[in-house]
Amino acid sequence: MPADLATASTVTGLLQEIADVGRDTTRGGYSRPVFSTAETDLRAWFIEQAERRGLDVHTDANGIIWAWWDTVGGTRRDAVATGSHLDSVPGGGGYDGPLGVASALVAVDLLKARGLRPRRPLAIAVFPEEEGSRFGVACLGSRLLTGKLDPDKARRLKDPDGNTFADVAAANGQDPRFIGADYKTLQQLGVFVELHVEQGRGLADLNQPVAIGSSILGHGRWKLSISGQGNHAGTTLMKDRNDPMVAAAKVVVGIRDTARKYQDARATVGRLQPVPGGTNVIASRVDLWIDVRHPEDAVTAALVEAIGLNAQVLAAEEGCAASLGVESLSPTVHFDGGLRDRLRELLPAAPVLATGAGHDAGVLAAHLPTAMVFVRNPTGISHSPDELVEDRDAEAGALALADSLAGLLGQARQIG
Ligand code: GLV
Ligand code: MN
Ligand code: MN
Questions:
Q1: What is the full DSSP assignment across 304-341?
Q2: Which of 210, 212, 246, 279 is surrounded by the fewest CB atoms within 10 Å?
């Protein structure tokens, strides 16, 4: 291994290299929306890191970066793929996404240092817009890759400033005409294993550094628009108002109360936007986005229907109208049992844990066996600057990933 790689080849060392990229001095933590300067800097950083390791790197039509460790003279099929994402939620932690990417790079170093020469190709993937924090659709890159998202719909998606995904992608060197299902790339992949910071307290409570994922909770996003009458804050008597902000406040409480009636349900309003949004202006409309999750997709549907009906009633009480539309939907995913059992053999001490968070591994699961490895988060907090991974756990995670990949690469041969 070249000396420069040896020094950088810890997860902590790699994350340290990007520790200043996309820091959010207002919200705290990191804001790295897709195609922001921060996210494109991280993509450039990853490409440089992958190339330094001798990997063959290219960015596909959907903006997914692939870094290939090819077999000698081999073809790209039945690959063992790993990776994650580099974008973040607004004011997120430093591990959600980058931990999986850095661990993949370190795993390659560990495998090379062991003298392993894989007989199956290995690929590291970096997926764009996993969080959906800019264009609203989570796992945008993997949804496009797998044909789960209509390219026309994707091209028309708008960010909060009104820029379309097509325009922003084009400004970042991607030709939006060519986004969409890419079965050729999918056919090159045999399995996908995503390492991720755990976004709960499962491992902390079990006092274990790494776990194997069993399932991803079904989840979706809906946009609720409440329309009223925009007006003057000083001249409009309280009795004369059709204020959608008041309706929205009732609706938010209603969503919490409705979700509490469904066991295991989660419903969140994390984003709310009054239009036009002025201190002395009664809003004409309030848009709010609802994230709903439940293990059973039928229950999610029933809960969302109840939320929608309740919103109409509450909006009407304020002389307003409400309309609800789905933005994205991901059913509950149970990871491939065979691959999970193989990982259990390779990581015998690791418990098996479910997650309530969404991941590209969940989208890919409809097309190939996928699995996840979680790394302990002592705070149990995520999507917050308080997300944490201890240094020794980060390295334990990379080691677990390397062991998993080595085992999956199967007939990997010891050399040297
Ligand atoms: C992504 O982290 C999600 O679960 O929304
Ligand atoms: Mn996340
Ligand atoms: Mn993530």
A1: HHHHHHHHHHHHHHTT-EEEEEEEEEE--EEPPHHHHH
A2: 279
Q: Which long-range contacts (CB under 8 A, 24 or more apart) does 301-310 make?
A: 302/262, 303/258, 303/259, 303/262, 303/265, 303/267, 304/220, 304/222, 306/258, 307/222, 307/254, 307/255, 307/258, 307/259, 307/267, 308/222, 308/224, 310/251, 310/254, 310/255, 310/258
38: its two tokens: 């921060």
Q: Is the CB of 360 under 6 A from ligand 1?
A: no
Please identify, in words, the CATH class of the domain defined by 219-330. Answer: alpha beta
Do residues 151 and 108 make contact, with C-beta atoms less than 8 angstroms apart? no
| Helix, strand, coil percentages, rounded to 5, for the chain | 35, 25, 40
In contact, 351 and 201? CB cutoff 8 Å: no
143, 216, 359, 382: residue to mutate for ligand 1 pocket, most atoms within 8 A of CB: 359
Q: How far is the CA of 24 from the centre of ligand 3 (A)?
A: 18
Which residues of the chain does CATH 3.30.70.360 include? 219-330
Distance between CA atoms of 406 and 119, rounded to whole angstroms? Answer: 10
Question: Are 358 and 142 in contact, with CB atoms under 8 Å apart?
Answer: no
Distance, in Å, from the CA atom of 215 to the CA atom of 295, rounded to the nearest integer, reads 9
Beta strands in 26-174 (DSSP E): 56-59, 65-69, 79-85, 116-117, 122-127
pLDDT greater than 50 at residue 1: no
pTM: 0.95
Q: What is the pLDDT of residue 73?
A: 79
Task: Please tell me what DSSP assigns to residue 25.
Answer: T
**85-102: pLDDT as tens digits:** 999 999 999 999 999 999
Q: Considering only CA atoms, which residue is closest to atom 5 of ligand 1?
A: 358
Confidence of residue 119 (pLDDT cuts 50, 70, 90): confident
Q: Which two tokens stand for residue 230?
A: 């925009």
**Domain 3-216+332-414, what fold?**
Aminopeptidase (3.40.630)
